[in-house]
Amino acid sequence: MSDSIAERALGDFLDEHFYEVLHRQDAAFEYERVRDRSRQLRGMDVIVDYHDNHIVIDEKAALHWINQDLRTFSFELSSLQSGHRDPVPGWLYNSNAETNRYLLMWIKTWDVRTKQLKKIPLGEMTPGNFKEVECVLVERSKVQRYLNRCGWNEALLMERAEEIRRNPNSKQLLGTPNSLIRFAFSGKLRERPVNVLIERDVLKAMALHVYTVTGAGIESVS
């Protein structure tokens, strides 16, 4: 519940200070914030039509790592979901997902009154609590191809995810020979996801665009 409150607040912040800014800059940039759950479950948070491009964005934010300058981002390989006895594929390889872009976000929040950095409880978050959001727009397929080039295709990743579930205390399974890639198991979360972690700088290098968004709008683009 608290996660959904924070996600809704973040969506409202992005609509006002990111997507609407892009629309004002170019009227050809049309966007729709997806509200219905059925489409959201297919990896559709925002749909953008821009000239001949139909872009389906799945917004992913490191909400549990706010103000920590996290140097990686977690891509979900598998998770536990209600109605399923066994783990289901995570959003990175979910065949039902219609996502073709991820908007990956690292977040800074503040106390609106004091203007000081402060980690706001997720269930209390409002759009005004977001001080700065670094947004990395990256193609879903490009992330998958990067992992494949590093020797981790979908089958091998899922195999490692299962090994981690069977041996959740094995630190050896969380590492790889490639220092830019490693795994994580979040046993404290209800979904108990297994994730593959990719370095932030690597993701920025493969990105279509990197934006810094504040309450004043889009502060920088690269």
Report on the structure:
With 222 residues, the protein is of the alpha+beta class. 26% of the residues lie in helices and 33% in strands. It has five helices and twelve strands. The protein has helices spanning 2-25, 37-40, 140-149, 154-166, 200-206; strands at 29-33, 46-50, 53-61, 72-79, 88-89, 101-111, 116-117, 130-139, 181-185, 194-199, 209-214, 217-221. Strands 1, 2, 3, 6, 7, 8, 11 and 12 form an eight-stranded mixed sheet that branches. The two termini are 34 Å apart. The model has no long low-confidence stretch (mean pLDDT 95).
Summarize the model shown.
The chain has helices at 2-25, 37-40, 140-149, 154-166, 200-206; strands at residues 29-33, 46-50, 53-61, 72-79, 88-89, 101-111, 116-117, 130-139, 181-185, 194-199, 209-214, 217-221.
Termini separation (Å)? 34 Å
Order of helices and strands: HEHEEEEEEEHHEEHEE
Structural class: alpha+beta
What's the average pLDDT?
95
Assess the beta-strand content as a share of residues.
Answer: 25-35%
Uncertain spans, ≥5 residues at pLDDT below 50? none
**Assembly context of the chains:** single chain
Q: What is the makeup of the main sheet?
A: 8 strands, mixed
DSSP summary: helix tally: 5
Number of strands: 12
Tell me the helix content: 25-40%
Shape: globular
Radius of gyration: 18 Å
Key attributes of the depicted protein:
alpha+beta
Helix-strand blueprint:
Layout lengths: L1 H24 L3 E5 L3 H4 L5 E5 L2 E9 L10 E8 L8 E2 L11 E11 L4 E2 L12 E10 H10 L4 H13 L14 E5 L8 E6 H7 L2 E6 L2 E5 L1
Parallel strand pairs: 3-6
Antiparallel strand pairs: 1-2, 2-3, 4-5, 4-10, 6-7, 6-8, 8-11, 9-10, 11-12
